[in-house]
Amino acid sequence: MVLASLFFYSYWNVVYLPLLLGSILFNYTVSIFICRFRKISKILFIFALIVNIGLLCYFKYMDFFIENLNFVFGTNFNLLHIILPLGISFFTITQIAYLVDCYEGLVEERNLVNYTLFVTFFPHLIAGPILHHKQMMPQFADNKKKRLNFENIAKGIFIFSLGLFKKVIIADTFSQWANAGFNIVDNGGVLNFFEAWVTLLSYALQLYFDFSGYCDMAIGLGLLFNINLPVNFNSPFKATNIIDFWKRWHISLTNFITTYIYTPIIRTFRKASFGVILYSTFVTFVIAGVWHGSGWNFFIFGCIHGIALVINHFWQKRIKIKMLKPLGWLLMMFTILIAWVFFRAESFQGALNLLRSLLGISWVSLPEGKHLIPSLLRNINGSEFTIAMLIIGFMMCLCFKNSIEKMQALKTDLKTALFTAFLLAVGILGCVGVRYQEFIYFNF
Predict the structure, then answer these.
(1) Which residues are CB-contacts of 83 (< 8 A; sequence separation ≥ 6)?
(2) What is the dihedral of CA 141, 144, 149, 153, to 10 degrees?
(3) Contact 19/83 with Cβ under 8 angstroms?
(4) Nearest Cα to 285, choosing from 306, 271, 255?
């Protein structure tokens, strides 16, 4: 499994394999010294944090730093044009979490192969979920997991097929509207009110089903090898406030930032007053926003969510007026959608251009040939089959409470086998003859 995972990683670009292996060997070695030499464990831990965060900052933020340096001081330093190594954010923070647990005396791993598999296990390597040591090591050590389990294989194929269907048929279809609209605003163009909302809602559905599909595929692949990956996505659009949303969206990231960022910030204060809690919440989500990528748009994305969470906590603890669920849902969705404008736009000006249209400032008829929707409808494959698959898949995925609960109640009978075969076949056919589209989270 280690060799297969390393081959999987190298297939994209073998040049970055030494970086991954070097990171693993460094952190594994430091973890042993932290566990063995408790008197200097704090120094070793801080050193390891600096190395890991420094490595991440170099690859992810160096060009952003140079751009802002040139802007502020009028310098003319050349950009490095660094290509972000695949999965660097995920394999770095996974190991940081492990080092924290070692420092606190919670774990101690002496098997390099198991540790390497923990970091590189290919279903989660590219875009999560962010794994915790105690979730995985007992499974790797369990001999029962090393036997064929046909029930797990059946469930794994089903949930993988469902995820592939979500990604290829639903997410990639909506991406055509989203990409066309954002390309226009990022290049200085203007959309009218209706076109802007088509663009943003298309991106929201693309992101939803892209990430949901990836989470399903990762869990399905894990089950093929009798490995249970943690649930990372739980119908977030059914949340009725922003707090509940983050308990359902990218669950492993929420757990990570709560445990390893929010809690340490709280501990720096003598007393965890309500004001301190609100401050820590805001700072935590600003950091989470910047973690998603370099650029001021990600900072703004984090600020929007941080402010929304602060307001939500203040409302619950101080106002204490129960809000109607439909109103709460609308406020949550509006906040999320506005934040996603900055999350998706390539530039700050592009985000502003779309916001003007969304808020009705550009509610005008554009010149002939400049409208977004008609040109999109002409360019998209509008066959009855594709439209039918889109509607079926959309309704099917919305009706599922979440894929994991559906899988747990799954009956491995002929009906399920035929349904799985249908999903898998349509998903594979959807990949044939189309331009390849990466998972949105692969580059974070």
Answers:
(1) 13
(2) -10
(3) no
(4) 306
Residues 423-436 as b/e (b if ≥16 CB within 10 A, e otherwise) read: bbebbeebeeeeee
* pLDDT tens, position by position, 169-218: 888 888 888 998 999 999 988 888 888 888 898 899 899 999 999 999 99
Residue 104, token pair as written in the block: 């606190």
- The verdict on whether 292 is a catalytic residue reads yes
Contact 173, 437 (CB under 8 A): no
The residue annotated as part of the active site, out of 292, 305, 313, 371, is 292
Q: Is 436 helix (H, G, I), strand (E, B) or coil?
A: coil
- Residues 6+ away with beta carbon under 8 Å from 96: 49, 52, 53, 260
CA–CA–CA angle 121, 126, 130 (5° rounding) = 70
160/363 Cα distance (integer angstroms): 43
**Burial class for 73, CB neighbours closer than 10 Å (0-12, 13-18, 19+):** exposed
Give all strands (DSSP E) within 53-204, no chain letters: none
Q: DSSP assignment of 178-237, as one string?
A: HHHHHHHHHTT----HHHHHHHHHHHHHHHHHHHHHHHHHHHHHHHHTT--PPP-B--GG
The answer to whether the CB of 117 falls within 8 A of the CB of 45 is no
Q: Residue 398: what are its φ and ψ, rounded to 5°?
A: -70, -35
Residue 404 confidence (pLDDT): 54
Phi-psi region of 412 (alpha: psi -120 to 50; beta: other; left: phi over 0): beta
The residue among 417, 421, 4 whose CA lies nearest residue 225 is 4
Domain boundaries in the chain?
2-141, 151-241+323-435
How many whole angstroms separate alpha carbon 67 and alpha carbon 77?
A: 8
Q: Give the global pTM.
A: 0.88
Residue-wise pLDDT tens digits, 135-145: 898 898 888 99
